Every structure is written in C-alpha cells, then in structure tokens.
Amino acid sequence: MPSTTASPGRFAADKLKTTLHAACARVGLDPTGAELIHITVNALYRLRSAPVVVRIAGSRTLLPRVHRLIQVARWLEQQDFPAVRLTAGINQPVIVDETDHVVTFWDYLPQDGQSMEPRDLAEPLRRLHTLPPPSFPLPTWDPIREARRRLAAAHHLDAQHRAWLEHMAEEVERELPCVPYVLPRAVIHGDAYVGNLLRDRQGRPVLCDLDAVSIGPPEWDLVPTAVAYLRFGKERSFYQDLADTYGFDVLAWEGFPSLRKARELNVLTGVLPALTSSPGIAAEFTHRMEGLRAGREDTWTPFRYAWANAHT
C-alpha cells in the first residue's frame, strides 16, 4: 500500500490528500478509502465509493494541456475509439487553489490481472493512425519542447544531471529534422506502451494517458516498445510481436537511433516532478542517469515499479 508519510514536492502526501478531498467535495464524490494507484507525471487515485479514477496534475501551469486532454478524450469517445472515458456528469477540470493542482475524473476499468502484451497495442494504434484529424487543432509532435518545459520547471534537479539532459536535448533537436520517416503523418498517441493500455469491461484493449496525442510520425508510437525491449531486459519477442502485428519494424529502420534518444529523454524528464516526492523514483532516475553519462547500456526498472517497491 502507498505510504501516508508526507514528503516534499508537488505530490507530497499531504497536498495530494487535500486535493483529493477538495476536488471530490466539489463534484459530489466520496473520497473515503481512496487508493493511490500511480504517481509519476500525474497522481491517480481509485475511489472506493464509486467506479472513478481521480487524476491529479501537478500544477495550474498544465491547465491548457488538461483542457486539450479533455477535448481529445471527448473526440475519441465520439469516434467510438477504444480509449478511457471521462466520467459523465462532471464539469471538468477542477482546479484546487490551495494546492495548485488540476483534477480530472475518469471511469474506472477493473483489470482482471491478465497482463497486457505489446501486440495488444497494434490494433488500437493502427486504428488511431488512420483516424481523420479532429475539427479542433492538435499540436504538432515535438518531443523536445515538452522535455525542455519539464527541465525548466525542475528547480531541484542536480546541476550535473541538468547539464547532461540539456545537452541530450540539443543533440536530439539537431538530429530530428534529418530523420527519414517512412510512414505518413497521422494522429499519434505520443506515449504508446503497454503501461498505457487497459482492458475494457469486454476484455478489449483500450488506450489511456491521452495527454500526448498529436499530429506526428506513427513510427514514434512503436519506439517505446522497442526501447523497453532494449532497456528492461525483455526477450526479443516482446518487441517483435508488436512489429509483426502492426506491420512495421522500427528496429530495422535507420531513423530509430535518433527517436530512441528522444524517447529516453522524454522518459527521464517525465518523472522530474516526482523526484522529490518518491525516493524509489529518485533512486531509479539516478541509476539511469549514471549509466547514460558513463555510456553504459544498463538495465532499467520501470518507474512505476520503482515507486511501488518503495511504498510497500
């Protein structure tokens, strides 16, 4: 179970509790017994009193991003696309002034314990990549812009780590315009990996974490699984099943090394807001940074496991 000991940072336990209770009170939900089930870029609570997940973004500065997330989620629902759904009947988002947090509410999908496999990503991604763009503007894919925003906001970050990540961002920014993309640009998820896949009540795979939906190269949605294969000690089949089912092999594509660096940069900067709130995430972040700076191909532990192991 998650620790109830307060820690500093945007997602300190006391701040999260204040936000959870204030937001639920505003929309008429009962937070009693709510369980903290995830914390990295956002904090997620599962309510015991209703089939609802409370999603907490760490700062009011993210409000435009949250508004776009809501717009995307409603558009995908209109398309009958397999994605998580906003909870109906709630005026969203909710801003909690006391903590500067921004809150949204989502339908909870109970999982049967059956693990998701990379090949389960293939059909939702193929369908997403063929959707006509919505009537409202989606951002153009730009992984460096988001990494730079996170770095600028990470005032607590070790100076040497910051300098290395900023150098990495500059390197990737130089390389991306030269990448020879093969697939036509499309609506992309932007953070497509098995951790952002759930099963609906009929057992079908659905995509979650829709914050990074944009217009960009479909190759990008296949890169996270390839990087997971290389970094997390997975068997080749972990990645190959997705490549074969989707019909494109990014590991055999000359643009992969640059997109791999962009993915690793995004993964590292994505957890910066949680470093001061989770010792487990901070320790794994340091392990990854030390390996990268030394030029080693270290095996990584997923941040969600690093957080869970430190809170059990």
Textual characterization of the structure:
- By secondary structure, the chain is of the alpha+beta class.
- The chain has two domains: 95 residues, Phosphorylase Kinase, domain 1 (2-Layer Sandwich), CATH 3.30.200.20; 193 residues, Aminoglycoside phosphotransferase (APH), C-terminal lobe (Aminoglycoside 3'-phosphotransferase, Chain: A, domain 2).
- Helices cover 41% and strands 12% of the residues.
- It has ten helices and nine strands.
- Strands 1-2-3-5-4 form a five-stranded antiparallel sheet, with helices on both faces. Strands 6-9 form a two-stranded antiparallel sheet.
- β7 and β8 form a beta hairpin.
- α9 crosses α10.
- The longest helix is centred in the middle third of the chain and has 17 residues.
- It starts with 12 loop residues before the first helix and ends with a helix.
- The N terminus is likely disordered.
Note the run of SSEs as H and E: HEEEHEEHHHEEEEHHHHH
Distance between the termini: 5 Å
Give the proportion of residues in helices.
40-55%
- CATH fold assignment of the largest domain: Aminoglycoside 3'-phosphotransferase, Chain: A, domain 2
The main sheet orders its strands as 1-2-3-5-4
Number of helical regions? 10
Reported CATH architecture of the largest domain? Alpha-Beta Complex
Q: What average pLDDT do the residues reach?
A: 92
* CATH top level label of the largest domain: Alpha Beta
Quaternary organisation of the protein chains: single chain
Evaluate the radius of gyration.
Answer: 19 Å
For the record, what is the CATH homologous superfamily label of the largest domain? Aminoglycoside phosphotransferase (APH), C-terminal lobe
Task: Please indicate the percent range of residues in DSSP E strands (runs of 2 or more).
Answer: 5-15%
| Major β-sheet annotation | 5 strands, antiparallel
- Report the principal-axis shape: globular
Which class of secondary structure composition applies to the elements? alpha+beta
